[in-house]
């Protein structure tokens, strides 16, 4: 069975209904997300780039205290448009620098390789396509020090205890004094957060509803997209943002081979989670994964952070 169809059947027949955010990203979804990244309300990319531009040298200096040669592994590397700036500033501090980009998309890795090699001289680059939950654990050992990067505040896609498990997974590939740098979107004014997921131009709405359009295109479903609405919600008590697609009426959606999904009026499909972190949450990750926090690099408003965790065999 088509894996997409299998996941759709599983997700839309359980209670409550849910679909993975991974299915946002077809060709149309990719383009819409690039538009989201340019929105004024979507503050995350600007915060991340500010830290990269202003503090990459400090990160490099801190890591160079432990390693002369460094292998940088980026999980979910994307197109490399931000990472190339970090690598350029890292290069003077190490004798040898190696970059390993991991992403599920082969095409985006081609863009990544071109971006990095056109901007950063004398760097050895490797691209590994696939799910990094499979590819990372198969990496061969290296004599270099190792830095694993996880950017884009993508740690927010994990609930806290799942994030601990992810940290433990990454830790398996680290030797003593190897590092794991993770970007965190920190808690802030709730209205600023919710605006990032409900922009005034409706791009985020289109991005979410494209998931229904994708099921129509690829699975021959018959969603009437005008009868659904995108609804984001932020809970300031626990720092969790969730996204839902809400049915505006009682309706039946049909797929091929007799598969049907019943929706009640105002029933929701959960599609995404994005956790915003309290300092105590980051400390929880450190304590429960056994990775020591060695440095935190903030943006100018202290609303976003690069946190460096290091393996210490004590």
How would you describe the overall organization of this protein?
The strands form 3 sheets. Strands 4-3-2-5-6-13-12 form a 7-stranded mixed beta sheet, with helices on both faces. The chain contains 10 helices and 13 strands. The chain has helices at 3-12, 27-37, 44-64, 83-90, 106-119, 132-135, 160-171, 190-196, 203-219, 279-289; strands at residues 17-18, 69-75, 96-103, 124-129, 145-150, 179-185, 228-235, 240-247, 251-254, 260-263, 268-275, 291-298, 304-311. Helix 3 (44-64) packs parallel to helix 4 and helix 7 crosses helix 10. Strand 3, helix 5 and strand 4 form a beta-alpha-beta unit. By secondary structure, the protein is α/β, with parallel strands linked by helices.
Main features:
37% helix; 10 helices; alpha/beta; 314 residues; 13 strands
Layout of secondary structure:
Elements: H1 3-12, E1 17-18, H2 27-37, H3 44-64, E2 69-75, H4 83-90, E3 96-103, H5 106-119, E4 124-129, H6 132-135, E5 145-150, H7 160-171, E6 179-185, H8 190-196, H9 203-219, E7 228-235, E8 240-247, E9 251-254, E10 260-263, E11 268-275, H10 279-289, E12 291-298, E13 304-311
Parallel strand pairs: 1-11, 2-3, 2-5, 3-4, 5-6
Antiparallel strand pairs: 6-13, 7-8, 8-11, 9-10, 12-13
Helix pairs in contact: 2-9, 3-4, 7-10
């Amino acid at each position: 069975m088509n894996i997409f169809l299998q996941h759709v059947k599983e997700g839309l027949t359980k209670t409550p209904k849910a679909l993975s955010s991974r299915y946002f990203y077809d060709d149309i979804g990719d383009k819409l997300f690039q538009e989201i990244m340019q929105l004024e309300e979507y503050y995350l990319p600007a915060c991340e780039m500010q830290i990269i531009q202003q503090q990459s040298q400090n990160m490099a200096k801190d890591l160079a205290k432990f390693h002369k040669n460094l292998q940088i592994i980026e999980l979910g590397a994307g197109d490399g448009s931000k990472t190339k700036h970090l690598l350029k500033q890292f290069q003077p501090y190490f004798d040898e620098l190696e970059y390993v980009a991991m992403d599920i998309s082969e095409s985006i890795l081609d863009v990544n390789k071109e971006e990095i090699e056109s901007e950063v001289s004398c760097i050895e680059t490797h691209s590994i396509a696939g799910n990094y939950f499979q590819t990372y654990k198969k990496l061969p050992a290296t004599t270099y020090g190792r830095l694993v990067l996880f950017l884009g505040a993508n740690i927010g896609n994990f609930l806290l205890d799942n994030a601990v498990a992810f940290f433990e997974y990454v830790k398996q590939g680290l030797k003593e004094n190897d590092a794991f740098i993770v970007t965190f979107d920190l808690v802030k004014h709730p209205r600023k957060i919710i605006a990032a997921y409900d922009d005034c131009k409706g791009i985020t709405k289109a991005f979410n509803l494209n998931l229904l359009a994708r099921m129509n295109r690829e699975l021959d479903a018959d969603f009437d997209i005008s009868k659904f609405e995108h609804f984001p919600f932020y809970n300031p008590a626990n720092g969790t943002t969730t996204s839902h697609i809400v049915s505006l009426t009682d309706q039946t959606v049909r797929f091929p081979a007799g598969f049907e999904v019943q929706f009640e009026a105002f029933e929701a499909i959960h599609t995404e989670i994005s956790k915003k972190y309290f300092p105590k949450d980051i400390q929880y990750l450190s304590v429960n994964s056994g990775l020591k926090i060695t440095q935190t690099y903030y943006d100018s408003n202290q609303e976003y952070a690069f946190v460096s965790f290091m393996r210490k065999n004590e």
